[in-house]
Amino acid sequence: MLRRDKQPTATIKQIEINVTTGKALSEAIEIWTGWAKYDTEGPHIYKVDGYYYLLAAEGGTFEHHMLTIARSTNIWGPYESADTNPIMTADGKDEYIENIGHGDLFQDRDGRWWAAVLGVRKQEDGYLGLGRESFLSPVDWPRGGWPVVRQPRMSFSREASLSMVSRPPLTAPPFVEDLYIRDYDPSKYRHTNDGKTITLTPSRTDFTSPVDTCTFLGRRQRSLDSTASTRITAIEGPLGKNVQAGLALYKDSIRSAYIAFDFATNSLVYSIHNSASGLSGRISRKIFGKVEEVELRI
Question: What is the pLDDT of residues 246-297, one digit of tens each?
Fold first, then answer.
């Protein structure tokens, strides 16, 4: 756990503004110094049963991450820390979902409380292959008391409400899962009506640019063990030109890897790039004869 006498200090300050113009109407006033007093940030205030509850994230965003809470009858304080702090953390616990914090509390249509929090799924080798993800966790909030946030789990049970059972299942709009790198240019992406075929217009930028946009259609990886595949049709346009198309594992402009078909050399290319560690490499294999279609899988 944190040594609170050995950590830097951050505090929560509050200022009144004109919600229309954004103009400040008061000085910034410190209203809570936090419980852990380490990277105290991300405040949310809820008015429940006559109290103003101040929820904050503390401990940084790694193993000491946590949710803490305080309350006051006046929005300007003074705020009293909960005796149950931290109300959620994986620090010092053997949990599959770790580094949990940065949460928000909300109610459903039946008045039940929930927490949406950030966390990571830690692999056996210690790596965090999926990065930070959002998790939903039930909250028990007794009247006049403190909220109790259950430890996030990959699955949990909670009695279904009548409003949830009677409502039709939610349907997502088409292509809602599609992800792009920075500025999205719709002219570079054309979907067929069934969504199974996509025509892409190449860009002059690749993954390594920290500011520009390359032609990239992504899906977030949801499982630690997963596969992805695509089938590339070699149309006449890019053949012989400096164009590559394929599958990529993209973290950011610093870290990426891809396997692609190189239209200029009629080759399959595998490339890995990590400018942070200096690890970079490229392997290509020439394909002899005309290629009409290539199927790639990661």
Answer: 999 998 899 999 999 998 888 999 999 999 888 889 999 998 888 888 899 9
Q: What is the pLDDT of residue 52?
A: 98
Q: What is the largest CA-CA distance in the chain?
A: 77
For the chain, what percent of residues have pLDDT higher than 90?
Answer: 51
Q: Is the dihedral of CA 73, 13, 59, 61 positive or negative?
A: positive
Nearest to 215 by CA among 232, 239, 199, 194: 199
- How far is residue 12's CA from residue 43's CA, in Å, rounded to a whole number? 7
Amino acid at 227: T
Nearest to 35, CA basis, from 43, 46, 24, 26: 43
> What is the three-state SS of the chain?
CCCCCCCCCCCEEECCECCCCCCECCCCEEEECCCCCCCCEEEEEEEECCEEEEEEEECCCCCCCEEEEEEECCCCCCCEECCCCCCEECCCCCCCEEEEEEEEEEECCCCCEEEEEEEEECCCCCCCCCCCEEEEEEEECCCCCCCEECCCCCCCCCCCCHHHHHCCCCCCCCCCCCECCCCCCHHHEEECCCCCCEEECCCCCCCCCCCCCCCCCECCCCCCCCCCEEEEECCCCCCCCCCEEEEEEECCCCEEEEEEEECCCCEEEEEEEECCCCEEEEEEEECCCCCCEEEEEC
Taking a C-beta distance cutoff of 8 angstroms, is the pair 244, 260 a contact? yes
- For the chain, give the number of residues: 298
Q: Residue 223 has which token pair?
A: 């499982």
Measured CA to CA, the distance from residue 265 to residue 248 in angstroms comes to 19
Range among 107-116, 160-169, 284-293 with highest mean pLDDT value: 107-116
